Amino acid sequence: MLAKYKKVGKVLSVSMIAVLSLSLLAACGKKEEAKAPEKTDTSAVVATYEGGTITANEFDLEQRVMKFLYPEYAQMMDMDDFKEYLVKQEVAYEYLSGKASEEAKTAGAKTATEQFDKMKASVQADQWTEMQKAQNLTDQNIKDYMTRIMTVIKDKETGVTEDAIKAEFEKNKDQFTTASVRHVLINFTDPKTQKERKKEDALKIAKEVKKKLDGGADFAEIAKKYSEDPGSAEKGGLYENTPVANWVDAFKEAAKTLPLNKISDPVETEYGYHVMKVESRTEADYSKLTDEQKETLKSQLAAAQIDTFMNSELDKIVKEVKLPKTDKAEEGKTEGTSGTGTEGNKTETKTDDTKGTDTKKDEGTTGTDKDATTGEGADTSGK
User: Fold this and answer.
1) Which of 39, 129, 299, 368 is surrounded by the fewest CB atoms within 10 Å?
2) pTM of whole model > 0.70?
3) β-strand partners of 268
4) Which domains does the chain have, with CATH numbers?
């Protein structure tokens, strides 16, 4: 496995779970479509592994489905080493789904169909059609991909015990702890001029905001006037009932530890200074988890097993990869990202996890990936 894509690979293998388990969606009835007769695939073999092969046509279809479900990785798919990672990932799921039990195959197909129906129902019909046309896909192409992924997940879930689920919960409490937080963000970049703002200048403004709030000013009105977080300013700075795991570390810690309804000192993240007030907080409790939340934890454990296979066993079963090289002029054209710290990656397109669905970003204080967002915390009363 390519070490540089380890984190990306984890996203791609787990994101289907995030999207499907945490849901895209509202249920709807399902209707199977007729499958067209299969044509003989005479394209070149691009990967050979223990027990099978991947052809150029199969890999092309895999990439088109992934661009549909994970559009944020589309540009990376022009990079040769990323393509190699993707074809190996396809090998992994083909290999593991082939070895899955019949029960897992049945359960995987059922779950994939249910979640496909929900995903499709969450998108307007004309938009869905345009998205498919862009990648030359049918409903069945997408279902087949989802079925393969869910079959492997269901197979790996078989051995997951209640004790293991409890242990996973303890490691991921933030995922289930929610808070309603108001904040005013003063950016390190002036949003009007797009010029860098000195830290001391940003801190001075944040302290002035805190002084007004300590003096009894209405938080919502102050946020609308001063906050530079477009994701929450018009809502009076409010992020309501949000999993604290969605936020970058310093903001998350303040959301977890600040006394309720107390105005914080300015909290520093890489985006700027935040003056915060936690209005409510619901602590995680295993006994209060829903069946759906437990299934999410179970799926995470299954995904960890898949990740282990990808890291330690996959290279042993891959015999050869022969992918055509990409024109260097086209390779590596990826764009950077920016934000303000509270962007929650809602799975409305990505696959996450299949984030196959639109990723809406609220700019402000969130980061969904702890490895991608760091941010030093300033003193907050409550630490």
Assistant:
1) 39
2) no
3) 273
4) 3-31+43-168+290-321 (no CATH), 177-282 (3.10.50.40)
